[in-house]
Amino acid sequence: MEKIQYKPSEFYVPPIDKVGVEERVARIQTRSIKNESKAQALRLALNMIDLTTLEGKDTPGKVQQMCYKAQHLHDAYPNLPTVAAVCVYPTMVAVARKALGNSKVKIASVSTAFPSGQAPMKIKLEDTKFAVENGADEIDMVISRGKFLAGEHNFVFDEIAAIKEACKKARLKVILETGELVTLDNVRLASEIAMHAGADFIKTSTGKIQPAATMQVTYTMLCAIKDFYDRTGKMIGMKPAGGISTSKLAIHNLVMVKEVLGNAWLTNEWFRFGASSLANDVLMQILKLESGKYQSSDYFSID
Amino acid sequence: MAKKNNASDKKGRKESENINWEYAAAPESTASLKFQNKYDLFINGEFVKPISGKYFKTINPANEKVLCEVAHANEKDVDSAVKAAKIAYTNVWSKLSGAERGKYIYRIARLMQERARELAIVETLDSGKTIRESRDIDIPLAANHFFYYAGWADKIQEAFPNKKMESLGVAGQIIPWNFPLLMAAWKIAPALAAGNTVVLKPAETTPLSALFLAQIIKDAELPAGVVNIITGFGDTGAAIVNHPDVDKVAFTGSTAVGKLIQKSLAGTDKKVTLELGGKSANIILEDAPIDQAVEGIVNGIFFNQGHVCCAGSRVFVQEGIAEKVIAKLKFRLDSLYIGDPIDKNTDIGAINSKEQLETIEKYIKIGKQEGAEIYQPNCEMPKTGFYCKPTLFTDVSQSHTIAQEEIFGPVVTIQTFRTIDEVIQKANNSPYGLAAGVWTDKGSRIFNLTTKLKAGVVWANTYNKFDPTSPFGGYKESGFGREGGLHGLGAYLK
Amino acid sequence: MSRITVLKTYKIYIGGQFPRTESGRYYEPRTKSGKSLGNICLCSRKDVRNAVVAARKAQGSWSEKSAFNRSQILYRIAEMMEGRKAQFIEELMLQGSTQKNAEKEMEQSIDRMVYYAGWCDKYQALVSSVNPVASSHFNFSAAEAMGVVGIQISDSHALLNLISLVAPVIAGGNTCVVLASENLPLCSVTFAEVLNSSDVPGGVVNILTGTQNETLPTLSTHMDVNALVTDNLKIEEYKEVQINAVENLKRTFNYKENWSELESQGLKFIANIQEIKTTWHPIENIGGASSSY
Questions:
Q1: N or C: which end of chain A has fewer CB within 10 A?
Q2: In angstroms, what separates the C-alpha of C147 from chain B's closest C-alpha?
Q3: Partners of B248 in the beta sheet?
């Protein structure tokens, strides 16, 4: 495989002042979305969810149930959108493929020895190919955080580029695992490396490490996407994952996308939520708006 | 307030769920608030009718509707207010222990916190500032100011060791319309803590929050005459300044009026603090945290519609990143919401008065005439009320009028520079010296710049931050004396 | 035949040089007994202007010198004064002082210079503060020199008031233009010679002689003077200074002091001629790491 050289001159990694980021995020969180707009925003959020199960104890049965839920979020309420995708381990991709049939719900598979990424390159490539061959539409890879923190940025770049090649037509989401990168400066640099190496999406977290998709981290990555777009004309998607479990937080994220990137990113082609419990909260909010009554979780299935 | 968002709209959208949703109007409810038809003067613990017999209207600049009428104090009214303050000083306030004074001031702070929402609405309706700012910044800071100085009242001797400190007497205080309640707090709290009594005059376009504060002071059962709040115009202010029983004058406002005050006080023993105008530089170096710096420019100049004495109205960007910063700034400007200040989503509210709007528009015209490049977002503006689009001038040089004179509106000039020496010279090349901003990632460079900039407040990698503990005030023609912190306390003692 | 003594020409001091007034004029202040003190430069508006230019030029580097260095330089002035004691005393007596008073004034003047030399690297700690703001910022206030300071010296003491007013101003990193005592100017000129032979950079102290009626209005209206210190001016005189100072908002201070008192020295004479600058910087709080252990 031809090695892609990481060229620092092409990178744009401005320093980041965390306190300034916190202030900006706090201001975004004061935005008030009401009524008609809120209903639209909630439906949009629902449609952006990657419904996720990534557990050691996942079974075909569990995955099948989740896939059904993905297509029938709340049948008592007609005309709801579906979620964007289901997100599973590679071994479950075939199960999901079968369960989803011709549905437009996509299948995302984690790969590259998720969540730690501590495996040889060869295995990571195999892992990816396996998922793609089993029918994954999207690959959620993890970067080698250890290498990144040790300063081996070329390694990280090359690895992403190699996985991208193995993805073939599948879209590649690159998980930075920002909770392990610690600083926003690292998040920015890792975003830059991922985008240059061929990521279609950049994603905050595996969901296994805290803190995960904080507003500050997502903001930093959105800024990186904006700068990348301004320089190259290429749109990159964004997926905050882990920790977004309420409608309110989801809407804050959408407001942030709108203000930092613009309306073009407000579609599930360019923005996703990696979440397992968000969908029901959004559903409850949608029904609350509709009926004016606060909802009980007992009335919403928990697959 | 539908407005166009230019962000990459040209890119196609595929999903049916892709909706161009907007922020819906989210006005703060004003239902709970009822203004009286007329407001009188707060003298000697009571609201009294003005001897002048005159009242003037105060309007909501967001829609030009009259809110109510307030009294216009004349010389006799001022005299009765100063007399009340003097008697209260001699008979009551100067005899109270610091601890007791402090407890009264704590009471005021608490009552302000309890009525914060109401005060925020009053402030926004009367001044045109956004509810977001009055709710999140002005009112909490004002209450915190009382809280902070309350604690100093019984520590005056410890604050200035080896010096016998004494209060001054009656403080005459004149405040501007840009931060009506906050400025009242900046003035009253340290004066009371130090043991002085007060006659305060709010600006004629924004008298209401101070009158609500008067009610709070009454409800706090502060001894009668310790704080007197009288409304009026420049003549009222002049009468306060020139009253022989006023021992200290504290003024925040324009440099022109500050100079008049200083002149009229020449040859007297009155102590003075002046907090005046500015034309502050906000300097962005090549290694700055650029996205935060862009936010810093926005906060620096568009905070409170640019009605801020320390507004970062002169932005200096190092040439290597100028293009990028300007592009980002324009993009950011497009996402700002201009409209009814009572709406919680509004970023830029109403200009305080018609007069001020005309001044700003005059400068925008001059800027264009002098050949600077103008940028304003293409957004809808309310049909009534006083509004001005956020305005960016590029291709500006130091000699442009808009880069020299204080505009006091949402208008920023961008100049580029090559070296640090150059930008220090240009930043200091002004009769003002109130504030400055520096954006760079390099610590040693920050200290180089912050020590060489002739300004009373320097924000490094931030801008427009205020705190009761932090002294504020200017160099050169931006005034003298400090407000806030220990230094602000000293200004009310001898 | 006895030797003819060489008479001294009294010059002014601008930018480390000893020019004569550009006006070419002189005046002859006299002692109470009517004896002429010599031909003293009668400075003009232009001399004031030149002195302000020199002071402005010197201001940046003087204020940027380390406090320790300024302290050493002030102490060096005191040393040089000690060496010239006899000359100062002779001049003080020439100007009408008794020997005893002249000696006392001389000693006090040297001691006062030493006192302020010691302050150079200490006042900052007493007038600065770290301010615990509620947001995530480090915030501190520190003193900074005001810039160019005009100093007017009255006729009460020939030397002590000069030292009492100049020392705190330059200790604080300011540069100054001094209008020497109009009728007792000799020590001021000699002091200039002391400064010149100490390590004080040219322009830090500039000394002009002449009639203050002429020079003070020029100095008090000068737009490039940041502050003005006057010495026991009468209220009407000071009022005029204040009005003149308004246009560029000079900070003005009229000290009503008896300079021979020990109380007439102190921190406030330095602190008055300082601006307070408050600096903010964000504090990054990473990942909840705390300082507890």
A1: N
A2: 10
A3: B171, B271
Q: Is A139's pLDDT higher than 50?
A: yes
Cβ separation C285–A17 shorter than 8 A: no
Q: How far is CA C261 from CA B194, C81, C88, C108, C112, in A?
A: 29, 20, 20, 10, 11
Per-residue buried b or exposed e for A183-198, using 16+ beta carbons within 10 Å of the residue's own CB: ebbbbbbbbbbbbbbb
**Nearest-CA distance B23 → chain A (Å):** 5
Classify the C-alpha dihedral C253-C256-C260-C262 as positive or negative. Answer: negative
pLDDT for position C293: 57
Please name the residue that has the structure tokens 């001031």.
B105
C37: left (phi over 0), alpha (psi -120 to 50) or beta: alpha
Q: Select from C282, C283, C286 the Cβ nearest to the Cβ of A183.
A: C286
Quick one: DSSP state of residue A119? Answer: S
Contacts of B147 in chain C (CB under 8 A): none
Structure tokens at C115: 């006192």
Contacts of B267 in chain C (CB under 8 A): 235-236, 238-239, 242
Separation between Cα atoms, residue B340 and residue B348, nearest integer Å: 8
Length of chain C: 293
Kindly report, residue by residue over A267-278, the tens digit of the pLDDT.
999 999 998 889
- The single residue listed with the structure tokens 């309306």 is A263
Amino acid letter, residue C273:
I
The whole-angstrom separation of Cα B253 and Cα B204 is 12
Quick: pLDDT tens for B281-333: 999 999 999 999 999 999 999 999 999 999 999 999 999 999 999 999 999 99
Answer with the residue of higher pLDDT: B34 or B98.
B98
CA distance B176 to B71: 17
CB count in 10 Å sphere of residue C155: 16
What mean pLDDT do residues A94-123 have? 96
Token pair of C114, please? Answer: 């030493």
Mutate to test the interface with C, among A22, A184, A188, A205 (most CBs of C within 10 A): A22
- The reply to whether residue A262 touches residue B18, judged by beta carbons under 8 angstroms, is no
Q: Give the pLDDT score at B32.
A: 78
**What are the distances in angstroms from CA B110 to CA B46, B122, B200, B210, B238?**
21, 18, 21, 16, 33
Min CA distance, A28 vs chain B (Å)? 10
For residue B373, list its beta bridge partners.
B394
Q: Which among B5, B21, B295 has CB closest to A40?
A: B21
Q: Which residues of B are known to be catalytic?
A: 275, 309
Structure token digits, residue B67: 């809110």
Q: Which of B4, B5, B8 would you mutate first to test chain A, the one with the most A CBs within 10 A?
A: B8
Chains that touch B (3 or more CB pairs under 8 A): A, C
Q: How far is CA B220 from CA A189, B94, B106, B151, B216, in A?
A: 55, 18, 9, 17, 6
